[in-house]
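Example 3.2
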Amino acid sequence: MTSETFNALVVEAGEGKTYVRQVKKRRVDDLPEGDVLIRVSYSSLNYKDALSATGNKGVTRSYPHTPGIDAAGTVADSRVGGFKKGDPVLVTGYDLGMNTSGGFGQYVRVPAGWVVPLPGGLTLKESMIFGTAGFTAGMGILFLTERVKPEDGPVLVTGATGGVGSVSVAVLAKLGYTVAAVTGKTAEAGFLKGIGASQIVSRDEAADSSGRPLLKTQWAGVVDTVGGEILATAIKSTNPWGTVTCCGNVASPDLPLTVFPFILRGVRLIGIDSQNCPMDVRLKIWEKLSGPWKIDGLASLSKEITLDGLGDNIDLILKGGQKGRVVVNLGE
């Protein structure tokens, strides 16, 4: 097994500050040490993967490197109890694809503590339609639904055509919430309504630049994926005792805000760190995504590509052009 070769996307430093992406042969025995060797069947493309694939040192410190923060497949070898050859499993988050060779290769080797048994309600491909983006959405929804009920009013989802946003829209709609979806892509209104959005909010409408510390309340809860002024506006527009979750900063890491929404309205802001989510919470979320939260027509949220198609899709996600989820098929 250790001398076996496999296909992987390899990112290497080029001349100057450029980085070159190429599908190459790698050897299993070149993978890092770990408890469980997994033959990867599917991965998925996330924004963090695109950063790693373009040399972002805040994500990946050294190159050559194989990105891919998601992987689903079968156990090829295990040095620990609890996992045996042939078991279907998935890995999302931790250090996979960041500084540990990731799911854009046909094999990964990882610590046993990173590995989740494939939930019974999902196929390997379906688990990667969710992937890190879907898991992040699920984590935000878990915290939001603890305090906000469908009858409390509409819920706002920002960055709604992206991976986290689209899964959030679809799951919240399935759970009976009225969902308002923020997007800068007016042409995708039909897609968003098709997955459950009741209202489309333009990016300009979602960002208030007046500087007022509080705005008219509109939302019982918010799932924010972009940060910046849109997040600040959402917080200032949230109902008393509402809940806002945030997981991204593609718009900005800054939050132009006073404390008034928190001390005058009791708004709760919850940060979502899906990368280091404790295993007990992780298993709870996957149980929900594979059962009561599983999206009807899940496949319609995704498109499938191979390793050879990653380059174009990496460029697309960096330009903000991704719609839904991109699943990578690593079959022979």
